[in-house]
Amino acid sequence: MNDHQPRNLSLPTPGCFADPDRSGLTATDVFDGMTEHLFYTLGKLAPSASRHDLYMALSYAVRDRLMTRYLAGIEAIAANPKRIVAYLSAEFLIGPQLGNNLLMLGIQEEAAEALKQFGINDIEEILDVEEEPGLGNGGLGRLAACFLESLATLEIPATGYGIRYEFGIFDQLIRDGWQVEITDKWLKAGWPWEIPHPDQACFVGFGGHTESYRDHQGAYRVRWIPAEHAIGVPHDVPVLGYRVNTCDRLRLWRADATESFDFYAFNSGDYYGAVEEKVGSETLCKVLYPNDGTAKGRQLRLKQQHFFVSCSLQDMIRSLDARGIPIQEFPDHWAVQLNDTHPSIAVAELMRLLLDDKHLEWEAAWAITTACLSYTNHTLLPEALEKWGLDLFGSLLPRHLELIFEINRRFLQQVRLRHPGNEGVLRRLSIIDETGEKAVRMAHLATIASHHVNGVAALHSDLVKQELFPEFANHWPDKFTNVTNGVTPRRWLALANPQLSALLNETIGDGWVRNLEELRQLERYADDGGFLENWGATKLSVKRHLTHYIHRHTGVLVDPASMFDVQVKRIHEYKRQHLNALQVIAQYLRIKNGLADGQAPRTVIFGGKAAPGYAMAKLIIRFINGIADVVNADPDMDGRLRVIFLADYNVKLGERVYPSADLSEQISTAGLEASGTGNMKFMMNGALTIGTLDGANVEIREEVGDDNFFLFGRTTEGIARLREEGYRPWDHIDASPELRETLNLIEYGHFSNGDTELFRPLLENLIGHDPFFVLADFKAYLEAQEAVSKAWNDRPLWNRMSLLNTARSGKFSSDRSIRDYAERIWRAETFPVTITCQIDEAQVKGRQLPAPQ
């Protein structure tokens, strides 16, 4: 048992917010809490408890310990109001909660000791039971989760607002090499981490019409008469900071119908009609990102966004009303961050609430709106910058469209004063896109109304100003800024990589967990041969765990001593998984042709999901699996090359993969990746990066040094020149016999069982116009991979480079990102929560119970 108690954590005194017996942090306390929840909450006796029962009991016992801090924080804010950060995001990919909360509380060993009394000798048996909440798609949602954890760790009051998706992102199966999507039923066995608050529900309207009237003072007003309503019921998930008492929250909204059952329709024989309203309302939170390829899908997406944004803003206003704070002070108490364009309807909704419900005048309402809103842009891709057709928008949100027209009118009047007679500037800056089908440009709306607009890496932020919004940047040069993304070292190093964490703690102490810059102390061991050997042995030990996972789930045996060359992220053409696949074929051909001298033995690992409607991305998955089938069955590849596609990539699997990687593939087309966060997780765990000068790769290379980064490919400027000059993919094929042979092998059906048509769309895409310049960078990519092999074959050198990657990863902590936001954008201050008491150091009771069946 670990006698060390977490820094600044304390138990409540009698009369505080919880029973001290449900807040203790010893193994005995945890065991008692589990026993109580097994009996009273789950209705089970310990001898008959299953592993799932024990997971639920331990989770409830841990949640009890979060509640003390959670409620203390709410009471402290009520007594001494502070500015709270409201982080609005359509995604929160929070990952498994039990292991993370044990780490936050500092009771991993105590929980393991408690489980032994139930016959469980390895806590991983219980942690593996947990279903991961499918509340996000990729980097955007995981970033939001890292930010919430850092906000709590830095003791900044915050609430994350999102949707409680019943099914979330799909589960991915691979059948015959193809991605198959199945429903992600993450709630099917219950989820112990949420606390529903039906008493704090909100009403949200859709459709209908508006009408004008004069109030009792004769002022002109507008009221919206919606045609339908939904009820938003909040479910709170406590988010505890690392070894502090601050426990922020993630508030997720579930949609209910205003009337769940129509007795008249049922008694008339219309059984579907009896529940039609319930089904329609609950559809709002059924699934993350419904396919927007149909009119119904687009309508549902817009309804989802308005639903959670309206609920969240109503919740903020209600909190002010409850504390007697005037609405005019809204910006003093809430800093509202729009995480990409999904929540940007907040501009119009906040104006509606202030004008129509609070009866403020336009200037006062606009001043409040612009003082509290800020917007993070996450993409330069035009298709990802949301636009909504006026017909759809007006039919669903008629009052909001009126307000957007008025916001646009007033804004364009300012533009005319700066650019008289320049209709081109007006068209480019207008919130309403009038080219083709008229549409509302949500990024423009968010930019106009926000006091700050930030990109998420230095390069990306420059491109936002120079290419995406140059006129806006000229109009408001001080509005645009940069906050480079970061990831939490607690989950992605301390929790995911206990072997490396133990080595770090033993070598430089554990201060790095809260201050990642302390990893710089490792640099003094960069030339210590014995330490470097230990460093490499630690990595090998971690890789063995992933090796077992791969064999268990794919049947393929891989050598943990081979280089683990990893590309795991959302499947998209601009991320260029197909470039990686082409280099695998080239490596395969070199081995077959006897030209592979000095080529490092590799296990090339892919993982990621393709959007269900994205045909080319799904074909790339099939392509990778076709290559894997051939390579892994060829005896010439034994000990030299293996290809693995890990199905259903998520946070839980990421915790296995990031610590095991030797080489991190960050090979997107320059200028298209906003930042990336996987690149940071790999670096933090000692992987070396091969990549283009794109997104945060630029800053990673600056931090780690040119000699510890494998750079290749055209720059953003080089890509722009290729476009201007008229890019011809065939020029690169003609200049490279190796590339031609690689493409010929695909064309002849070598990786598709002789089917020459299967990968034809992919080949035609590459040879015809190659929109992401895969063939243009192929030669440089292979040369960089040769440098990788050379470095790998010098193991002391590789271990040194690996160590320096970890040592210099401090900048990429989400703690640094949150400090940047708090100081430069939110003006949010720390607010430590203090709970004074005496911790009971009772020893573990010696009770033994039989193992679960």
Automatic annotation (TrEMBL):
**Molecular function GO labels:** 1,4-alpha-oligoglucan phosphorylase activity
- Tell me the PANTHER family matching this sequence: GLYCOGEN PHOSPHORYLASE (PTHR11468), GLYCOGEN PHOSPHORYLASE, LIVER FORM (PTHR11468:SF3)
The residues forming the signal peptide are none
Q: Which cofactor does it need?
A: pyridoxal 5'-phosphate
**What is stated as this protein's family in its record?**
Belongs to the glycogen phosphorylase family.
Class of the enzyme per the UniProt entry, highest EC level: transferase
Q: What species is given as this protein's source?
A: Cyanobium gracile UHCC 0281
User: Which of UniProt's keywords are assigned here?
Assistant: Carbohydrate metabolism, Glycosyltransferase, Pyridoxal phosphate, Transferase
Name of the protein this chain belongs to: Alpha-1,4 glucan phosphorylase
Q: Which reaction does it catalyse?
A: [(1->4)-alpha-D-glucosyl](n) + phosphate = [(1->4)-alpha-D-glucosyl](n-1) + alpha-D-glucose 1-phosphate
Q: Does the keyword Lyase apply?
A: no
